[in-house]
C-alpha cells in the first residue's frame, strides 16, 4: 500500500467513526454551556439510532437515496423529545443532573429493544438497505494527493458535521443567543437579573443536545452498525462526553477531539491493515480516549474549564 | 394536601415512586396492547411462586446489595461513583483468575483469598478516582465513567492475551472454577429447587450489617458522612478531607468488587468476555438511589428489583411480553426518585421540618438527600 492509499484509508475510516461523536459532543457542549450536565448522551444516541433505523426500514423504498438523511432528522427529533425528560427533571423539578442523565441511559436501551420487539416481533431489526455509503466530491476528488485523501470515497456526514461545528461555534461565541446561553451556564443569577430567561435558555441547551445526540445516534446506526439491537450504542455517548471535555466545552474543540477519538477507534479496528500500527496491541487504542480524558482533566486542574454553574440547579426566587 | 412528618415522607416518597414506575410500565404495555395485569401477576408468581424462583431472586439480589452499598458509601461522602460496573468487573475477573490459578489450594485459604483479592481489585479501580479527586480535584463522575471503559477493554485484553490458555476454554470463556474456590452450597441449592443461590447471600447480609455499623457507629463512618454533608465544616473540625475522600472511594470500590466476586464465584462459576458495562453496576446504583442509602432500604430495594428481573423472565415466557419492560419500570422508578421534589409537594410537612444538613450549600443547588450535586469540574 502506498502512502496516499494508507492515508486515504485512515482519513476515511477516521471520518466514519468520528462523525457520530462530533454531533453528540456538540450537543453536550450546548447543554453544558447552558448549565445542565448531560451524562444522558448515551441514552439519547440510543433513541436516535433506534428511530432512524425504524424510519429507514419503513421508508427506504419511498425516499430512496434520501432516506438516511431524512433518518438523521427523525433521529434528531426523537432525541430531542427524549431529552425533554432530562430538561423537565433538571430545570423544573430540581432533579440531580447526573441521576437524571443516568435515567436516560437506563431507559433508552430497554425502551428501544422493547419497541423493536413490539413492532418486529424479534430482538433486533433487519439490516437497513439505504445506508450512508462512500461519497466523492465532484471536482474536489480530482485534486492530486489531497483529493484522494480527503474528498474521494469519503463520508458525506463527516463533512456536514465539520461544517455544523463551525456554525455552532459561531452561534455560541458570536451571537446574542450564544452569549445568553453561556451566561446561564456561568452565572444564572446574574443572567436572570439582566432579564435573560434562564429556564428558557437551559431548555434550549438541553433540547439542542437532544437533537444533536439523536443525529449522532442516527449517523452511527446508518453508517456503521446498519441495524438496531441492544449492542448498537455501547459507550459512544460516553466517548462523546469525553470528547466534549477534551475539547474544553468548545464546539471546534469538541469536533477536533471527536476526530482524534474517531482516529483512535478506527486504528483499533483497521490497525492490522497498516504498517507500524499492527504492532501495537489494540487495547491501547481502545482505552486511549478514556485515558486521555482523565489526563486532560488532571492537567487542567486549577484552570476553570467547565462553565462555572454547570450541573447546578437554578431556582428562581419568587 | 396530606400532612405528614418528614420521617413518613421519607418512606412515602420511594413507595410512590415505585407505584408510579409500575404505572409507567403498565401504560407502555397498554399502548402496545399487552395486558399489564397479566404481566405483573406472572412476574410476581414466577419470582415468588416456587422455591426455584425464590432462590434465583435471592441470588440476583446478592451482587446488587454489594454494588448498592458501594454506591451508598461514596454517596454519603458526597461522591457519585458511577464506576460500579468497572469495579465489579475487576473483582469478578480477579477472583476467578486466582481460583483457576490455584486448583490445589485448600478451600479455607483459597476462598477467602479470592474474595479479598476481588474486593481489593475493585477498591484499586475506585481508588484511582478517589486519589485523583483528593489530589487534583478531578471530577469523579467523569473519571469513574472513563475507568469503566478502561477496565472493560483491559479485562478483555488480560483474559485473552495475558491469562494462560490452560485456564480458558476458548478466547471468550474461562474454565469453570473448582469446588475449593466456589461459593456454591449444595444443600442450599437443592433446598431452593436447584437454583443458583449461593453463600454469597450470607456475605451480602454481613456486608449490610458492616455497612450499617460502619456508617452509624464508627468514627470513620461519621467522618465520611461529615465530609459529605459539609466539607468546609469538617475541615474546620480537624478532619482530613483528602483522607476521607480516598477512604470512602476505596470502601465503595471494595464493596462493588465484592458484587463482581459473588457474581463470579457464586452465580456463573467462570468469567466470560463482557462487551458492555456490567448490569449489576447500573442496577446497584438504582438500588441505592431507591433505598435512599439506608441499610434496610438497600436490602428491600435489591429484593424488589430482583423480583422484577427474575419475574420478568417468567413473564416473557408465560405472558409473551418483552423482558425489557422490567428495565423500563426500574428506570422509571429512579426517574421518580430523582424528581422527589415534585412528589414532596404532594405533602405538607407537619412541623417546621428539621431537614438533613444540606450538602455544600452554594445557594443555587437544592439539597438532595440521596446524592450530591452534579458536575463541579
Automatic annotation (TrEMBL), chain A:
Keywords: Cell membrane, Membrane, Transmembrane, Transmembrane helix. This is Sugar ABC transporter, permease protein. It is found in: Cell membrane. The chain crosses the membrane at residues 34-57, 69-91, 97-120, 132-150, 156-173, 203-222, 228-246, 253-271, 283-302. Its main location: membrane. One of its GO terms (cellular component) is plasma membrane. GO terms for molecular function: transmembrane transporter activity. It comes from the Bacteria. It is a multi-pass membrane protein. It holds the Pfam family BPD_transp_2.
